[in-house]
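To illustrate the input format used throughout this study, we show a single complete record. The first block contains the structure-token representation of the backbone; no residue identities are included at this stage. The design step must infer an amino acid for every position from geometry alone.
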């Protein structure tokens, strides 16, 4: 997708600190971290929001949970806990319109989120 920041990160046009890459999903450090661990997990395939995925994307999107587990283990977050967040739409705080999951950990979390 032309002019999509996260597509450009996924294809290497824009630099980022990539911490995971399996060909279909990548994860990289958030440029504006809200917790000691703040990673973004994204499908390389472009979807502007979660509402753009289709039934055929079930496996791809489901695999995000497995990658979140792998990254939680790598960052020693199993015991302390962590949060996996997806903002869908500007009303929910989405600012980059390429589906991404925030993996946040390393500090206590409150509920409900703001
Ligand atoms: P959201 O508000 O849910 O759409 O989250 C977008 C996140 O993307 C936000 O936490 C900051 C992060 N971000 C924005 N631009 C860049 C960038 O150029 N590089 C990286 N690594 N993260 C970015």
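Output of the design step:
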């Amino acid at each position: 997708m032309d002019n999509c920041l996260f597509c450009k990160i996924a294809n290497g046009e824009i630099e980022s600190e990539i911490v995971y890459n399996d060909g279909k999903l990548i994860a990289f450090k958030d440029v504006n971290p809200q917790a000691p661990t703040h990673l973004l997990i994204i499908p390389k395939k472009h979807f502007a929001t979660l509402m753009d995925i289709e039934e055929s994307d079930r496996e791809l999107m489901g695999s995000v949970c497995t990658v979140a587990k792998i990254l939680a283990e790598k960052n020693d977050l199993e015991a302390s806990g962590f949060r996996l967040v997806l903002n869908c739409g500007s009303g929910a705080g989405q600012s980059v319109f390429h589906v991404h999951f925030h993996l946040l950990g390393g500090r206590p979390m409150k509920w409900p989120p703001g």
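Structural context for interpreting the output: The two ends are 31 Å apart (CA to CA). The chain has a mean pLDDT of 97.
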